[in-house]
Amino acid sequence: MKMLNHRDYYTCSQVVLKNVKFWNGSKFESRDQLVLDSQKGFAVSDVSASAKVVDCNGALVMPALFGLGLDFKEPLRDDVYTFADGFEAMRKGGFYGGLYESSANPIDDADKFTAMVNRFEVGGKEQCNANDFDVKFLGAYSKGFGSDSLAEMMELAEAGVAGFGDGNGAIPHSRFLRLAMEYGKMTGKRFFFQPMDKTLRKSGCVHEGAYSDMLGMKGIPRIAETIAAFTVLEAARFLQVPVHFKQVTCGETLDLIRNARKNGMDVTCDVNIYHLLFDDSCLELLDSAYHVLPPFRSVKDKEALWAGIADGTVNAISMNHTPVLRQDADVNFEDSVPGALSLEIALPAIWNKLVERVGEARAIELLSTAPAKLVEAEPAYEVGSDKQANVVVLDPSKTHVVSRKDFAGHVCNTPLMGQELSASIVGTFVNGVWTEF
Asked: Residue 28 pairs with which residues in a beta bridge?
């Protein structure tokens, strides 16, 4: 098997996977042979003599992933990252689709939405074209992600956005929030918020707690999230608007969501993969690779997120794939630009931990089926269907050390750099393209 930093693309009508464990919708079952057909899914009776044959040595074949929180920066910041980089990252990490929202490029009218879709269609390399992926877009609910004027939400909804987002910015003042929800309610679309009160966050960059006090760093208290979440929930309850919270970080916010659901509200949420892997004890290293927003919180908060995953409060695990230039990341922690890449390494980083905590079925739901369902995307595959099947092949017992060569583009900002992951991706089959590592 080839290492992650060496990849081969095969555009072929059929791939024959030998010696695999195949996810049949309820469990992994051993298969001596599994045929992937670019036109007929798994429903294949005849195997072509030209089919690509791969011995997977007992690896898992599961639905490809659907990523929440994709930002490829282009066009405004294509010096940082491009659509081609993002498409390659998706293919390497086993993602067949995702929800796109760029903090640098707000989609606040129908013309911008059309332009963004067109740029996606021509932005990929030959082997990583955007047409190979099921990408949905969030429209902005305000002009330029500001709080002065509303975006053209009716036009955006008619054009095909999946919902309305805030560009991961702070929650606006309450009157503007109400106006946005009242207008957006007419579209029937869901609002996506990263709950953060800007006045309480101010210039903070880490969790407000024992470590921020010890290191003398400016902290962001939990109430910056809970007050913002409560404000959104009250507005949504009053106006009967469906909402989604991005990258929840603390148990108190999950309690608010649980109570809202008990009262009949349509509210969903996700947790960023890195908030399940790290807590604020990492600040002792003073490494800017751990600078993300919202910040890593305490061990207690991390365990509360895992509990929310186990009891179903958390709907999905998000990627928040945010590229940062090396010169903006390799500086003093508080001066660095926050963000982390995740697409290429998310599955091998989290799979074994997820399975240990919640089992295989729930793990697949959190990473693939639930995030796709949230934005009404098609599933990666359906067993027994003759539709195109998108899969990722994972060896859960083969370790891999994260290096710069794992990442698409010229940036590699991640807190997992140099760490050993407990699993490795063998290959991915997305829209008829087999990528082998």
From this structure: 23
User: How many of the other CB atoms lie within 10 Å of CB of 335?
Assistant: 10
pLDDT at 127: 43
Distance CA 77, CA 80 (A): 6
Q: Which two tokens stand for residue 14?
A: 């059929």
Q: Is residue 380 part of a domain?
A: no
Q: How far is the C-alpha of 434 from the C-alpha of 109, rounded, in Å?
A: 36
pLDDT reported for residue 132: 76
- Number of domains comprising the chain: 2
Domain CATH number, residue 225: 3.20.20.140
DSSP assigned state of 41: B
Tell me which of 321, 355, 374 is where a domain ends: 374
243 with 231: CB under 8 angstroms? Answer: no
Q: Is residue 347 part of a domain?
A: yes
Q: How many residues does the chain have?
A: 437
Q: Domain range for residue 406?
A: 8-61+385-436
Residue ranges for the chain with pLDDT beneath 70: 1-12, 43, 122-131
Using CA atoms, how far apart are residues 229 and 227, in angstroms rounded to an integer? Answer: 5
Half-sphere exposure of 118 (CA within 13 A, CB side): 7
Contact by Cβ (8 Å): 247, 294: yes
- Note whether 17 and 155 are same-domain residues: no
Q: How far is CA 158 from CA 131, 133, 188, in A?
A: 21, 21, 11
Strands 52-63 and 28-37 come out as unpaired
Host H or E run for residue 244: strand 243-245
DSSP secondary-structure letter at 281? G
Name the residue among 91, 125, 85 with its Cα closest to residue 433.
91
Same domain? 344 vs 244: yes
Query: Tokens 């992994």, residue?
Result: 28
Query: Strands 95-100 and 65-70: what pairing?
Result: parallel
Which pLDDT belongs to residue 237?
98
Strand-pair partners of 378: none
pLDDT at 3: 33
Other Cβ atoms closer than 10 A to 199: 9
| Cα 362 to chain centroid, rounded | 16
- List, as one string, the DSSP characters of 139-159: EESBGGG-SSSB--HHHHHHH
Q: Which two tokens stand for residue 360?
A: 């295989």
Has residue 2 been placed in a domain?
Answer: no
Count CB atoms within 10 A of the CB of residue 173.
12
**Which of 324, 354, 374 is the last residue before a domain boundary?**
374
Whether residue 138 is contained in a domain is answered as yes
Same domain for 326 and 219: yes
